[in-house]
Amino acid sequence: MENIAERSYANLLCLLYRHGKLGAAYFNSEEQTLNLYEEMCDTKPQYLRSASILREVAPKYLLTFGNLTEEYVKAIVHFIQSANETVVTSDSLELPENVFLTSMNDYSYEVCKTIVQNINVASNHLERSDDAKQELYFHSIINWDHRLSIQALAALYKFIETHSTMFNFQAGSVCIMHINQVTLKNHVLIDNASFKTLKIFCQKSHDAAFKRGEESSSREGLSIYKLFLSSCKSTLGKAHLRNILLCPINQIEELNKRLDFISFVQDPNNSDFISNIHDNVKHLTNLNTLSEILEKIYNARASSSNWKTLYDTMMHIVFINDISKSYRNKNTLLNELNETVTENLYGLQDTINKALDFSVDVRRGRPAIKFGLDDDLDAKLLRRQDISKHVNAAARCALNDLPQFVSECKVVYLPEMGHLVAIKEWEPNCDQSAFQDLGYQVVFSIGGTIHYKTPICVEMDRRLGDINGEIIDHENRILRRLAGFVLKYNRDIREPLRLIALMDCLIAMAKVSQHNNYVKPTLNKDNVQELVKCRHPLMERILTSFEPNDYYSGGSHSHMKIITGPNGSGKSIYLKQVVLVVYLAHIGCYVPAERANIGMVHSIHCCGQSQESAAVRLSSFMIDIAQSSQILHYAAPSSLILLDEFGKSTLAEDGIVLLASFLKKFLSQNEMCPHIIVSTHFAKLATLLPENRYLEYYKTDHAFRDGTFCFLYQISKGTSKSFAFEIASAVLGDDIIQRAKQYYHCLQNNVPMDPQKYQYFKKPT
Fold first, then answer.
1. 12-184 has which CATH code?
2. Is there a shared CATH topology between the 12-184 domain and the 223-369+489-513 domain?
3. Structural domain spans, the chain
4. For residue 761, with 0-12 CB atoms within 10 Å meaning exposed, 13-18 middle and 19 or more buried, which class applies?
5. What is the pTM of this model?
6. Helix, strand, coil proportions of the chain in percent (round to 5)?
7. Residue 570 CB partners (closer than 8 Å, separation 6+)
8. CA–CA distance, 269 with 250 (Å, rounded to integer)
């Protein structure tokens, strides 16, 4: 899971675990929406479903039920602390500051049902007093069969109401834009260790030590995310790209839809259309800014620039949809965009265009209403223009009444105070009441100017009235009606934005794929993996040349591959490139290979070379054991498992036995064995495993060139030798190497060694 403190959004997640079932709901502060998961099974002790939700939502705050003595709460706290790289001790467990516990006693299902039906949803404009209509509305957007998730949603909303300022709401004024139903049903399960091993994300701290730890100073290193990031044109697309990488899916229909769009982008006949999309995507606001604008509109605090940003966003959405009209028969994603651009969106854009005048420089940032929209408002505006004539005449009359030492005066209008005569002080410490006999009453003095209320001003107030206040009230009534219209159909703005964000990501993937010669994979449900000359997408970018390799698993091929070879021969890179190619196919991207037929996987597990860390206080061996235990719990026949030198962190005798037992467990499943790739230095492993048609041994090839040992970085069938003598000869002398070979020969054949034949120290002559 990416670091919980990494995102600035104050997302709140609520988890409810009871009797092996998990209910979950979260508040997305970027979009200001509530999101409800379906009820799902989650097995202990790893709770992989809960971990997946935590990683995808990346909450700033977490709410769950129970107390610290319960196993589930302990597991969640441990997961959050390890994800944030804080010290975790086994003897004591403290509740993090961003984790909150509540009791089930306050949230029975019937109580929660009532709470949910009373949530203030901006898109719900039905009468609040009509219970039947309200119940029908909430039944249309929520599946009430997921009882645990309903309880989690109710607890989540009550927490937001109680701590509204934490989520940028005004006290007592919590408004949710919409409630969405989300799912994990088609998601590929990947644990946090696998994301790190594969370098899907790789956040680097600032080079300057005093800036490390600051969120704004971090940057992305060499990673899959960085690979596509620079080709995304909008902040909207960059945010959506992260979500795509965090949520690989195994739904073939959706993946083929993405792959077809990449093919569409790479077609030279469509290049002008794609350029037009990119030019418009750059001007779209992200969902976080959109939510802030909608919140200001809801609270009647939106400025003219806020309305202009909202209007421009809708205008570019409509324009992108209009220019795609002639291409819809070529791609289904463009048809989906057309379906999400509803008549309501066209109506919103047209209404804002007719109502607001963005060409006027409005004081205090207030939006200006277009002349001609409302006859009553137009009359008031014309009346205000006539006031200037009355003001000038009143100023001349006032000046004629004043003594000669007052050389100038002016009549000003102030809201709530009406018309006043403003006179500059004619001398220091002058008598402000000097004109009282003329009917001038002092109102206030500021900045060396004295303001008086005169009989002429009183008459102007009576005849002209508080025209500015009337105009502002009239404009506010129009803006409130317009705001209600926008909030009611806010989802009609969000949905096309999500699709356009996806299109921006896929265009970025298409450009990277075309530049690096990626190919479109064929997807299957037959649990068959066939990769021809696949490459590592990151390593090939930093190496001058990269040697591709094949991989076949499932169907008529073996399911388990054990690869042996010396250090530096390319074993680990081969393992990761196979997994990365499969991973890229599950986000709907082209893959670095000559040809790829990829089966849908249930989960991806990477048990790599672990490093000890003070953050978790576990040895490398214990980390390996924990990861392998998780694999045993969650691996399915269609899972993809990577084991990189498992058992290296303990005694060789213990490591090889544990590895053999682990592999035997899966080999015993025969055709139900997952796809497993193992790299190891344990040459004797083959003697501990039974012969099985689902098991094959591979090695890394080498060659001797001019007496030098060279790696070819090719994978072929067979088992490898250790090449210890060849590698040692690079730093040790020939006499030592020869003596080592003699020792080895004697040990292998159980014969005594002749000390006279090989001597380490030569006798002095």
1. 3.30.420.110
2. no
3. 12-184, 223-369+489-513, 375-484, 518-721, 732-765
4. exposed
5. 0.81
6. 45, 20, 35
7. 547, 700, 711, 713, 715
8. 31
- Residue 268, exposed/middle/buried by CB under 10 A (0-12, 13-18, 19+)? exposed
Cα 617 to chain centroid, rounded: 29
Q: Which residues pair with 730 in a beta bridge?
A: none
Question: What residues does 422 pair with on adjacent strands?
Answer: 410, 451
Q: Report how far residue 319's alpha carbon sits from residue 310's, in angstroms, rounded to the nearest whole number.
A: 14
> Are 61 and 160 within 8 A, CB to CB?
no
CB atoms within 10 A of CB 133: 13
Close Cβ partners of 97 (under 8 Å, ≥ 6 residues apart): none
Please list, in sequence order, all residues whose beta carbon lies within 8 angstroms of the beta carbon of residue 531, skipping any fewer than 6 positions away. Answer: 550, 551, 552, 578, 581, 591, 593, 595, 596, 597, 598
Supply the pLDDT for residue 62: 92
Cα dihedral sign, 742-745-750-751: negative
Q: Report the CATH architecture of 223-369+489-513.
A: Orthogonal Bundle (1.10)
Question: For the chain, which residues score pLDDT lower than 50?
Answer: 1-8, 86-92, 214-217, 615, 761-763, 765
Gyration radius of the chain over CA positions: 36
- What's the CATH superfamily of 518-721? P-loop containing nucleotide triphosphate hydrolases (3.40.50.300)
Measured CA to CA in angstroms, residue 100 lies from 35, 287, 531, 562, 761 at distances of 19, 27, 47, 46, 70
Considering only CA atoms, which of 557, 497, 599 is closest in space to residue 283?
A: 497
Q: What is the CATH architecture assignment of 375-484?
A: Orthogonal Bundle (1.10)
> Per residue in 690-739, pLDDT tens?
888 999 999 988 777 776 778 888 999 888 776 777 778 778 888 888 88
> For strand 560-564 and strand 695-705, is the pairing parallel, antiparallel, or unpaired?
parallel
248 DSSP assignment: -
- Residue 373, Cα to own-chain centre: how many angstroms? 42
Cα–Cα distances (Å) from 213 to 50, 216, 507, 620, 631, in that order, read 27, 9, 33, 26, 33
Q: Are 82 and 615 in contact (CB under 8 A)?
A: yes
Distance CA 297, CA 759 (A): 90
Q: Give how far Cα 752 sits from Cα of 90, 107, 734, 735, 746, Å.
A: 51, 79, 22, 19, 6
- pLDDT tens digits, residue range 631-643? 887 788 999 999 9
The answer to whether residues 277 and 503 touch, using CB atoms and an 8 Å cutoff, is yes
3-state secondary structure of 592: coil
Query: ω into residue 548 within 30 of 0, thus cis?
Result: no
Question: Quick one: pLDDT at residue 220?
Answer: 82
497 near 290, Cβ under 8 Å?
yes
Structure tokens given for 236? 């909207």
Task: Enumerate residues 6+ apart whose C-beta is below 8 A from 285.
Answer: 236, 293, 309, 310, 312, 313
Distance CA 328, CA 321 (A): 10
Q: CA nearest 352: which of 534, 262, 478, 215?
A: 478
CB 377, CB 370: distance < 8 Å: no
Query: 3-class secondary structure for 476-498?
Result: HHHHHHHHHHHHHCCHHHHHHHH
